[in-house]
Write a structure and sequence with these properties.
mainly beta, 0% helix, 156 residues, disulfide bond
Length: 156
Protein backbone atom coordinates (compact mmCIF):
# COMPACT_ATOMS: atom_id res chain seq x y z
CA UNK A 1 0.00 0.00 0.00
CA UNK A 2 1.75 3.13 -1.11
CA UNK A 3 0.75 6.69 -1.48
CA UNK A 4 -1.76 7.33 -4.21
CA UNK A 5 -0.79 10.26 -6.39
CA UNK A 6 -3.38 12.72 -7.54
CA UNK A 7 -5.37 11.34 -10.45
CA UNK A 8 -3.44 12.10 -13.64
CA UNK A 9 -6.51 13.04 -15.67
CA UNK A 10 -8.67 15.62 -13.90
CA UNK A 11 -12.21 15.94 -15.19
CA UNK A 12 -13.02 19.07 -17.21
CA UNK A 13 -16.79 19.63 -17.30
CA UNK A 14 -16.64 23.26 -18.51
CA UNK A 15 -14.31 24.00 -21.41
CA UNK A 16 -15.78 27.48 -22.04
CA UNK A 17 -14.11 28.97 -18.93
CA UNK A 18 -12.02 32.13 -19.00
CA UNK A 19 -8.61 31.72 -20.70
CA UNK A 20 -6.72 32.24 -17.43
CA UNK A 21 -8.62 29.44 -15.67
CA UNK A 22 -6.55 26.43 -14.58
CA UNK A 23 -7.95 23.02 -13.65
CA UNK A 24 -7.32 21.91 -10.08
CA UNK A 25 -4.24 19.92 -9.16
CA UNK A 26 -3.10 18.42 -5.88
CA UNK A 27 0.54 19.35 -5.36
CA UNK A 28 1.60 16.18 -3.53
CA UNK A 29 0.15 12.71 -3.17
CA UNK A 30 -1.18 11.71 0.23
CA UNK A 31 1.10 9.27 2.08
CA UNK A 32 -0.44 6.26 3.80
CA UNK A 33 -0.21 6.65 7.58
CA UNK A 34 -0.10 4.29 10.55
CA UNK A 35 -0.64 5.36 14.16
CA UNK A 36 -1.86 4.09 17.52
CA UNK A 37 -5.28 5.02 18.85
CA UNK A 38 -5.64 7.24 21.88
CA UNK A 39 -3.50 10.29 22.36
CA UNK A 40 -2.26 10.86 18.80
CA UNK A 41 -3.51 13.53 16.40
CA UNK A 42 -3.18 13.11 12.62
CA UNK A 43 -3.09 15.71 9.85
CA UNK A 44 -3.68 14.61 6.25
CA UNK A 45 -2.35 17.38 4.04
CA UNK A 46 -4.04 18.25 0.77
CA UNK A 47 -2.47 21.24 -0.96
CA UNK A 48 -4.53 22.03 -4.03
CA UNK A 49 -4.02 24.72 -6.65
CA UNK A 50 -5.93 25.98 -9.67
CA UNK A 51 -7.71 29.07 -11.00
CA UNK A 52 -10.18 29.83 -9.64
CA UNK A 53 -8.87 28.44 -6.35
CA UNK A 54 -10.32 24.97 -5.87
CA UNK A 55 -12.44 23.96 -2.92
CA UNK A 56 -11.35 20.86 -1.02
CA UNK A 57 -13.70 18.15 0.18
CA UNK A 58 -12.72 15.10 2.24
CA UNK A 59 -14.31 11.67 1.88
CA UNK A 60 -13.88 8.49 3.93
CA UNK A 61 -14.97 5.23 2.33
CA UNK A 62 -16.53 7.33 -0.44
CA UNK A 63 -18.74 9.36 1.92
CA UNK A 64 -18.31 13.09 2.71
CA UNK A 65 -16.85 13.80 6.15
CA UNK A 66 -18.62 16.15 8.52
CA UNK A 67 -16.81 18.43 10.93
CA UNK A 68 -16.96 17.38 14.58
CA UNK A 69 -15.12 18.06 17.83
CA UNK A 70 -12.43 15.59 16.74
CA UNK A 71 -12.39 16.19 12.98
CA UNK A 72 -12.11 19.37 10.93
CA UNK A 73 -10.79 20.72 7.65
CA UNK A 74 -8.14 23.41 8.09
CA UNK A 75 -7.97 26.58 5.93
CA UNK A 76 -5.11 25.08 3.86
CA UNK A 77 -7.31 22.07 2.96
CA UNK A 78 -5.69 19.63 5.41
CA UNK A 79 -7.83 17.23 7.42
CA UNK A 80 -7.17 17.24 11.20
CA UNK A 81 -8.17 14.23 13.32
CA UNK A 82 -7.76 14.61 17.09
CA UNK A 83 -7.20 11.65 19.41
CA UNK A 84 -7.35 9.05 16.65
CA UNK A 85 -9.56 6.04 17.40
CA UNK A 86 -9.56 2.57 15.85
CA UNK A 87 -12.82 3.48 14.07
CA UNK A 88 -11.00 6.28 12.19
CA UNK A 89 -9.04 3.74 10.14
CA UNK A 90 -9.84 3.58 6.44
CA UNK A 91 -9.30 5.16 3.05
CA UNK A 92 -9.45 8.95 2.95
CA UNK A 93 -9.85 10.96 -0.25
CA UNK A 94 -9.06 14.61 -0.83
CA UNK A 95 -11.13 15.96 -3.73
CA UNK A 96 -10.19 19.38 -5.13
CA UNK A 97 -12.64 20.95 -7.56
CA UNK A 98 -13.26 24.20 -9.40
CA UNK A 99 -15.30 25.13 -12.47
CA UNK A 100 -12.85 23.27 -14.74
CA UNK A 101 -13.14 19.92 -12.99
CA UNK A 102 -11.82 17.91 -10.10
CA UNK A 103 -8.91 15.73 -9.04
CA UNK A 104 -8.50 13.26 -6.19
CA UNK A 105 -5.71 11.97 -3.96
CA UNK A 106 -6.13 8.98 -1.62
CA UNK A 107 -4.43 7.69 1.52
CA UNK A 108 -4.99 4.81 3.89
CA UNK A 109 -4.96 5.50 7.62
CA UNK A 110 -4.14 2.41 9.70
CA UNK A 111 -4.85 2.64 13.44
CA UNK A 112 -3.42 0.09 15.86
CA UNK A 113 -5.55 -0.53 18.93
CA UNK A 114 -4.27 -0.28 22.45
CA UNK A 115 -4.56 -3.72 24.04
CA UNK A 116 -6.67 -3.53 27.19
CA UNK A 117 -6.21 -6.21 29.85
CA UNK A 118 -9.29 -8.20 30.80
CA UNK A 119 -9.95 -10.87 33.42
CA UNK A 120 -11.91 -14.07 32.96
CA UNK A 121 -13.92 -15.85 35.70
CA UNK A 122 -10.92 -18.14 36.41
CA UNK A 123 -8.89 -15.17 37.63
CA UNK A 124 -6.54 -15.07 34.66
CA UNK A 125 -5.72 -11.74 33.05
CA UNK A 126 -5.39 -11.56 29.30
CA UNK A 127 -3.71 -8.79 27.34
CA UNK A 128 -3.44 -8.57 23.58
CA UNK A 129 -0.81 -6.53 21.82
CA UNK A 130 -0.13 -5.93 18.11
CA UNK A 131 3.62 -6.22 18.83
CA UNK A 132 5.80 -8.79 20.64
CA UNK A 133 5.74 -8.35 24.41
CA UNK A 134 8.50 -9.11 26.91
CA UNK A 135 7.40 -10.45 30.29
CA UNK A 136 9.48 -10.13 33.44
CA UNK A 137 8.47 -12.21 36.46
CA UNK A 138 9.91 -11.29 39.87
CA UNK A 139 9.94 -14.14 42.35
CA UNK A 140 10.73 -13.65 46.05
CA UNK A 141 11.78 -16.15 48.70
CA UNK A 142 14.84 -18.19 49.68
CA UNK A 143 16.86 -20.15 47.20
CA UNK A 144 16.31 -20.44 43.47
CA UNK A 145 12.70 -20.36 42.30
CA UNK A 146 11.14 -23.64 41.24
CA UNK A 147 9.74 -22.76 37.85
CA UNK A 148 9.07 -25.17 35.00
CA UNK A 149 11.70 -25.04 32.26
CA UNK A 150 9.06 -24.22 29.62
CA UNK A 151 6.36 -22.15 31.29
CA UNK A 152 2.92 -22.14 29.75
CA UNK A 153 1.46 -18.66 29.65
CA UNK A 154 -2.29 -18.07 29.27
CA UNK A 155 -1.79 -15.35 26.66
CA UNK A 156 -3.26 -15.62 23.20
Amino acid sequence: MGASPASPHPTHPHTDAAPHAIPPTIKTGLPDLSTTEGSHDVALQCQASGEPAPTVEWLRAGQPLRASQRLRTLPDGSLWLQRVEAGDAGTYECVAHNLLGSTTARAILAVRGMGRPRSDPGGRTEARSPAPVGICVLVGGRGPPALPSTPTLPFA
